[in-house]
Specification:
With 270 residues, the protein is α/β, with parallel strands linked by helices. Helices cover 41% and strands 15% of the residues.
Length: 270
C-alpha cells in the first residue's frame, strides 16, 4: 500500500486555499490541510470558517481535484478554553471531509488540561474527527512524554500524538521514545528540516517553525534516524513554510522540492 502525502497548511506559504488545493493536486499530493482558526495572536488564516463563498470554493476545489482534507488547524487548549465555542469549526471541517484536528496545549495546569483534552476528544469524535496533540517545546505540552501522558489519560479513540520532526529535534525527547509510540496513537506526522545550531529561545523557535523551516536534506536534523523509527505506513504531512525561499524561487518550486525531498527521504522518490 502506497504511503499518502498531505500538503500542510503552512507549506502553501501564503497561497489562498483554492490555489493551494490546485497546486497540491498538480504536484501529486493525496490530501491537504487548511487553517480555519488562528495559531496565535496576529495570525489571520483564510476565512473559510466565516466566508460561505470561500467555503464553497474550497469544497468545489477538493471535489474537482480529488484531494481529501487530511487535517484542520487548529485548536489551542488554554486555561479558559470553552469547548462549546468550537462547534461551528467542527461542523465546517466535517463538511469538508477532514479527518484530524491539530491540537496545541497551552494550559500549564496538568489536571485541567488532562480533563479538557479528554472532553475535547469526546466532542470531536461526534463529528468523525480525531484530536491530534502536537508537542512543541514552547507550549505546555513540550515532549513526547507530555503528549503521551495526556493521550493515555484520555483513553479514547480520538486521542493521538502529532509528531513533528522539527519539534522533536528541539524538545529533548529520544529516538527510543519515537519507536515506543504505538501505531494507534499516531495518525500522521509532519516532516521538515531545520537549521542546526538554532536559537533555543521560545519566540525564536516559534518564528522559525512558522516561517523558516527547511526542505528535508537542507538542514541539520538527523531525519534518517527519525524516519527509521516511524511506522512505515503512517501518512506524511510535508510542512515546509519558508517565506524567504518562497519569495526567491516561487511557491510552486518550493513545494515541489519539499515533496520530492520528503519522498526521497522515505525511499519513495518518483
Amino acid at each position: 500500500m502506497a504511503r499518502s502525502y498531505s500538503m500542510a497548511y503552512l507549506t502553501a506559504n501564503g497561497l489562498d486555499p483554492v490555489a493551494a488545493t490546485h497546486l497540491a493536486a498538480r504536484l501529486g499530493f493525496d490530501s491537504i490541510s487548511y487553517r480555519l482558526l488562528p495559531a496565535g495572536p496576529g495570525d489571520a488564516p483564510p476565512p473559510i470558517l466565516t466566508d460561505d463563498g470561500l467555503f464553497r470554493q474550497v469544497k468545489a476545489a477538493l471535489a474537482e481535484t480529488g484531494l481529501t482534507m487530511s487535517d484542520a488547524e487548529m485548536i489551542r487548549l488554554g486555561p479558559d478554553t470553552e469547548l462549546g465555542a468550537f462547534k461551528p469549526f467542527l461542523e465546517r471541517i466535517e463538511a469538508l471531509g477532514a479527518r484530524h484536528i491539530l491540537v496545541a496545549g497551552d494550559d500549564p495546569d496538568r489536571a485541567r488540561i488532562t480533563d479538557s483534552y479528554a472532553r475535547l476528544c469526546r466532542l470531536v469524535w461526534e463529528h468523525g474527527l480525531t484530536a491530534d496533540l502536537e508537542f512543541m517545546p514552547w507550549t505546555a505540552v513540550r515532549t513526547i512524554a507530555d503528549a503521551r501522558a495526556l493521550v493515555e489519560a484520555a483513553d479514547h479513540p480520538a486521542a493521538a500524538i502529532l509528531f513533528d520532526t522539527l519539534h522533536f529535534d528541539r524538545c529533548g525527547s529520544t529516538l527510543d521514545e519515537i519507536a515506543a509510540i504505538p501505531r494507534t496513537m499516531m495518525n500522521y506526522v509532519q516532516i521538515c528540516d531545520g537549521p542546526v545550531p538554532y536559537d533555543p529561545a521560545g519566540p525564536a523557535m516559534m518564528a522559525l517553525g512558522r516561517t523558516a523551516r527547511l526542505v528535508p536534506g537542507d538542514g541539520g536534523i538527523d531525519l534518517a534516524a527519525i524516519v527509521a523509527r516511524l511506522p512505515r505506513d503512517v501518512p506524511i504531512s510535508v510542512e515546509v513554510p519558508n517565506v524567504a525561499l518562497a519569495r526567491e524561487i516561487g511557491v510552486p518550486t518550493l513545494v515541489s522540492r519539499a515533496l520530492t525531498a520528503t519522498r526521497r527521504l522515505l525511499g519513495e522518490a518518483g
